[in-house]
Design brief:
Length: about 260
């Protein structure tokens, strides 16, 4: 299989999933939407550090060394980033079809739509503008957090100072639900090199309870972090408390401190 074949295979698979996900009468639409973003991401499982979480590694700012990018290679022997780029291109082209899913009656569908659309190219900030409009209407706390994280991820791919400033305002805003403030704090940390303010640390430590962290594992970003703890807690530990050891697990296959 040549490189063009590899990219073509992904480009064909993703539009097929999009057709299923956007068909309101298809019985597998939720599963298709849930799996849609996987080809558009690579080597993100377990990633919870401030420099790598929400990062689109196959962007033009990441130089390919010896013909290979930092995603590694596929079983075909070709750079995995080529397939990732093809999947993202397909999602970008289908954004007009996917954006209405942000208003689906099922919160899980809205969350998965946010996760997929976060991988779209958005140099003109059009998609991000829809996220902002939807944020003003959304009522579900976890779906709101999804809109915050997807805004942060798409902003990491296409920097936009107003979006970064908005995230900072959100984690400081006591009127926002805790899920939003936590997502905004994590998103803001990933978009800036500034030291974490003491107010952010105290806010996150107070709001990131075990119960809330388990609830926020409904967010695909957090579920993908994995490890021996809920994704939110792993992000908090890696970003704000890197000196803290890995939590102990009874799982013999899990990494132990």
């Amino acid at each position: 299989m040549c490189a063009d074949d590899s990219r073509a295979a992904v480009a064909l698979a993703v539009p097929f999933l999009i057709r299923i996900a956007t068909d309101p009468d298809h019985r597998h639409r939720a599963a298709a939407l849930g799996g849609l973003a996987a080809p558009a991401r690579a080597r993100h499982f377990g990633v919870a550090s401030r420099d790598e979480f929400l990062l689109h590694r196959s962007g033009p700012q990441h130089e390919m060394r010896n013909g290979y990018d930092d995603y590694g290679v596929e079983v075909t022997g070709y750079p995995a980033g080529w397939s990732v780029a093809a999947a993202r291109a397909a999602i970008t082209a289908a954004a007009p079809l996917l954006l209405p899913l942000l208003g689906d009656s099922d919160p899980a569908m809205r969350i998965d739509a946010s996760y997929a659309l976060a991988t779209a190219a958005d140099p003109g900030h059009t998609v991000r503008g829809v996220f902002a409009a939807r944020f003003a209407e959304e009522k579900d706390p976890v779906a709101l957090a999804a809109l915050v994280l997807t805004t942060a991820e798409i902003t990491r791919g296409h920097p936009h100072r107003p979006a970064t400033a908005w995230l900072r305002e959100l984690w400081q805003d006591r009127a926002q639900v805790p899920e939003v403030r936590l997502a905004a704090a994590i998103g803001w940390l990933c978009l800036t090199d500034e030291p974490a303010p003491d107010t952010l640390r105290t806010t996150v430590d107070a709001l990131a309870t075990d119960e809330r962290a388990r609830a926020m594992d409904a967010l695909p970003w957090m579920a993908a972090v994995g490890g021996n703890e809920p994704g939110l807690l792993r992000c908090v530990r890696r970003m704000l408390h890197p000196e803290a050891p890995e939590p102990y697990s009874d799982d013999p296959w899990a990494p132990q401190p």
